[in-house]
Specification:
Layout lengths: L1 E2 L11 E5 L2 E5 L10 E7 L3 E2 L4 E2 L10 E5 H8 L8 E6 L8 E4 L14 E2 L16 E4 L7 H9 L2 E6 L3 H6 L11 E2 L7 H6 L13 H18 L1 H13 L4 E5 L6 H12 L4 H14 L2 H21 L16 H7 L4 H15 L2 H9 L3 H11 L3
Parallel strand pairs: 11-14, 12-13, 12-14
Antiparallel strand pairs: 1-2, 2-3, 3-7, 4-5, 4-6, 4-8, 8-9, 10-11
Length: 381
């Protein structure tokens, strides 16, 4: 469910729920004047391909909801509409001099296998502007992209990919990308698969007992280290995104949560998004990742093959006697995110560097001109 009542300008009394082939719009109050609302569709980084259509033409008398399927929108607009089209809710305030707009789109994109592939745009800034949809994406590793997924990247006009994985992670799961699209390698160690598994290699995590506090401390330490030791890496991220500011970009690592989560924090902060909105976006990993499915994928990719290859298989006499470094319960905890993890990064930025604005300028090295360019390219006017 997407709560539309987030406008800094005036309350919007609608809620939008993504459905399989479109969107469902609801309103709680029977007195809501649906005639004040219209919907249009945009595709690929804010390029409109339909004029606003009054929502009232889709409404039925006495109902407090509208289902807008792709087929209905395509018929109404005369243009192709699919999962990558972004609905634009246009709220008209009769007391305002100009029309008020709040744009809403599905965050999770329907990739066939790749987990947690989502649009992290759409946030509101402290000045009431909105981050564009369709240009900023984040995900986990891209080693299982299907041909349909590759076509989606082309449709989304993705021209820049920042890969935060280490060399051994890239070798184990090389990205499957459209021909001609090359990722920018930005190797960052904290939060890598190797580091995550090392959290399980201690006396506090075994098949009989999991001390979740130990894992939580480990994850908070990772986030603090990202702040303190990897400014040059995230500077390279900004350089890559700025160089392709007129197209779409992806930031990703293996799980798409720690290294990627901190990258998302810095990008959204540079655009002026509130810290609570940045935290809410970070926590969406828990909503969008099928943990049970991901645990099994990691079991195959990061333990079974390498363990057997490195050890020449497991002797039958040792089976059941050795401690398994791949504890499914523990890795399920690690694949989730908690607010305290990213908060550790935020607190470190505040206490050590005097706040995120100073961190972006003094540590990452963003100039006023670069910040202005980012806001010009990634915020709706």
């Amino acid at each position: 469910m997407i709560d539309l009542n987030q406008s800094a300008l005036k309350a919007i009394d609608l809620t939008l729920i993504p459905i399989t082939e479109g969107w469902k719009i609801l309103w709680q109050c029977a007195s809501t004047d649906i005639n004040k609302y219209s919907i249009g569709c945009e595709q690929v980084s804010g390029q409109y391909f339909s004029d606003p259509i009054p929502l009232s033409i889709f409404a039925e008398a006495g109902e407090q909801s509208i289902e807008l399927t792709y087929a209905m929108l395509q018929l109404a607009t005369g243009f192709p509409v699919d999962a990558y089209s972004h609905p634009v809710i246009c709220f008209v305030d009769n007391d305002a001099e100009v029309e008020q707009h709040l744009r809403v789109a599905p965050r999770l994109l329907p990739m066939s296998v790749t987990a947690n592939f989502r649009d992290y745009g759409g946030q509101l800034t402290t000045e009431g502007r909105q981050v564009v949809w369709g240009k900023l994406f984040r995900t986990g590793h891209m080693g299982e992209m299907s041909n349909a997924d590759k076509q989606a990247l082309q449709q989304l006009n993705i021209q820049a990919i920042c890969d935060f994985r280490r060399a051994e992670e890239m070798k184990r799961q090389p990205s499957q990308l459209p021909e001609g699209l090359e990722p920018t390698s930005i190797s960052i160690s904290p939060g890598s698969a190797t580091d995550l598994f090392s959290a399980l290699n201690n006396e506090y995590v075994n098949d009989d007992h999991i001390d979740e506090d130990i894992i939580d401390d480990f994850m908070r330490d990772i986030n603090r280290d990202l702040v303190i030791s990897h400014q040059s890496s995230y500077r390279k991220m900004f350089d890559t995104i700025i160089a392709h500011a007129n197209s779409g970009s992806i930031i990703h690592c293996s799980a798409g949560k720690d290294r990627t989560g901190f990258g998302g924090l810095l990008m959204l902060a540079a655009l002026g998004v509130r810290s609570e909105c940045i935290m809410a976006d970070y926590l969406r990993t828990n909503e969008y990742v099928d943990i049970a499915k991901e645990v099994e994928r990691w079991a195959v990719s990061y333990y079974s093959q390498s363990h057997n290859a490195e050890n020449g298989g497991v002797d039958d006499e040792l089976k059941g006697k050795e401690k398994s470094p791949f504890n499914r319960k523990a890795i399920a905890i690690i694949l989730r995110v908690k607010a305290s993890y990213l908060q550790a990064a935020m607190d470190t930025i505040d206490s050590r560097y005097g706040g995120v604005d100073r961190y972006l300028r003094d540590e990452i090295g963003l100039t006023e001109g670069e910040l202005d360019l980012l806001r010009e390219c990634y915020l709706y006017s």
